[in-house]
Amino acid sequence: MLTHVVLMTFADQADAAEAKRRLEGLAGAVPALRSLHVGLDRLGLPGSAHLCLTTTHDDEDGLRAYADDPAHQDVLAWLRPRLTGRVAVDY
Q1: pLDDT at 87
Q2: 82: which DSSP letter?
Q3: Residue 7, φ and ψ in degrees, nearest 5
Q4: What does the pLDDT average to over 73-82?
Q5: In this structure, what DSSP letter does residue 34 have?
Q6: 60-68 and 70-79 helices cross at what angle (nearest 10)?
Q7: Which end of the chain is more exposed for a tag (fewer CB within 10 A), N or C?
Q8: Are 73 and 3 in contact (CB under 8 A)?
Q9: Are 10 and 40 in contact (CB under 8 A)?
């Protein structure tokens, strides 16, 4: 099992809610996605990211298949121009 965690910061924090909706739409649409959870920051403390995405995959090949899936690529095309920061960890 491989867990993929991504923290995102948006130029306009209001975009985080739409990003959550779009990302949650990937559940059931991407075969290599075993689980997906999206959380929005509630406290707004300095230095906090606006959104946390956690996905799980069978293995590295599953993560690559998720990354390359057309549905995921569509979401990324919407996300990328709105982000001011993104960090990820895979464990």
Answers
A1: 98
A2: G
A3: -105, 130
A4: 98
A5: -
A6: 60
A7: C
A8: no
A9: no
Instruction: Name the DSSP letter for residue 43.
Output: S
Rg, the chain, Cα only: 13
Residue with the two structure tokens 């001011």: 84
Q: Which two tokens stand for residue 70?
A: 């057309």
| Residue 51 half-sphere exposure toward CB, CA atoms < 13 A | 27
Task: Say how far apart CA 2 and CA 40 lie, in whole Å.
Answer: 22
- Collapse the DSSP code of 53 into the 3-class scheme (helix H, G, I; strand E, B; otherwise coil) and give the result: strand
Beta bridge partners of 35: 56
pTM of the model: 0.94
Sheet holding 51-57: strands in order across? 35-40, 51-57, 2-10, 83-90
Dist CA 11 CA 88 (whole Å): 18
